[in-house]
Design a protein that fits this description.
Helices cover 47% and strands 15% of the residues. Bound molecules: BIS(adenosine)-5'-pentaphosphate.
Length: 209
């Protein structure tokens, strides 16, 4: 099964991608995580992406399409995958079509902008493995320490309040039109994000049956 998770920044795509990955045993592919890794390693792609990411803008389509194309051609993707954060523009969705990728379902997690702002201010992410937490809704067992690998759990630079507003604006302008794009293909399913991760997961897994 090839799935796309659609939703505003902080809607819970990464959190639910982990749950789906555990259930369906297919890899979750986050272009955001791949780009952050590239920035950390100082690769050519990372150097190009950094300023866009820091300001809350989208990285140019051709850069992201290139890394996504390479990733989905890897062996672990042969039985399907979950795309978290891709596509984010209509040209990216069209690029998937031209690669011959068949998408089975697009799952939108709908969350109000006010909730997003609250969630992102409390998010903490492991510097080493990228695992995501929330100081109130999904706290680490030991404050500031990743449960998975023991790395440092820190606030993402682009979770600063002014950058979150800019990311939301970008989402509404460039990514939200994908809902119509996939609704027209008859594969869009919308789940209302709930107040807890667990309640959202129940709806997400139900929607995938
Ligand atoms: P990316 O990393 O993809 O960021 P994003 O889409 O803005 O999404 P987030 O990771 O912020 O949120 P999420 O929906 O995964 O929420 P999460 O599960 O963490 O992209 C970063 C940047 O990279 C972009 O701005 C862009 O520059 C670039 N980029 C990436 N892909 C690109 C592309 N295709 N094209 C161009 N540029 C691209 O949850 C958020 C918080 O809420 C967590 O703390 C979590 O614990 C908590 N939480 C989750 N669900 C719940 C719940 N139900 N109740 C309470 N708390 C919850």
């Amino acid at each position: 099964m090839n799935l796309i998770l659609l939703g505003a920044p902080g809607a819970g795509k990464g959190t639910q991608a982990e749950v789906i990955c555990d259930n369906l045993k297919i890899p979750a592919i986050s272009t955001g995580n791949m780009l952050r890794e590239a920035v950390k390693n100082g690769t050519k792609c990372g150097l190009e992406a950094k300023s866009y990411m820091d300001s809350g803008a989208l990285v140019p389509d051709e850069v992201v399409i290139g890394i996504l194309k390479d990733r989905i051609s890897e062996e672990d993707c042969k039985d399907g995958y979950i795309l978290d954060g891709f596509p984010r523009t209509v040209p990216q969705a069209e690029a998937l079509d031209s690669m011959g990728v068949k998408i089975d379902k697009v799952l939108e997690i709908a969350v109000a902008d006010e909730t997003i702002t609250q969630r992102l201010s409390g998010r903490r992410v492991c510097e080493d493995c990228g695992n995501s937490y929330h100081i109130d809704f999904k706290p680490t067992k030991v404050e500031g320490v990743c449960d998975k690998c023991g790395g440092k759990a820190v606030q993402r630079k682009d979770d600063a309040p002014e950058t979150v507003l800019s990311r939301l604006k970008t989402y509404h302008e460039l990514t939200a039109p994908l809902k119509d794009f996939y609704a027209a293909k008859g594969i869009l399913v919308t789940v209302e994000g709930q107040d807890t991760v667990e309640d959202t997961s129940k709806l997400v897994l139900e929607a995938l049956k």
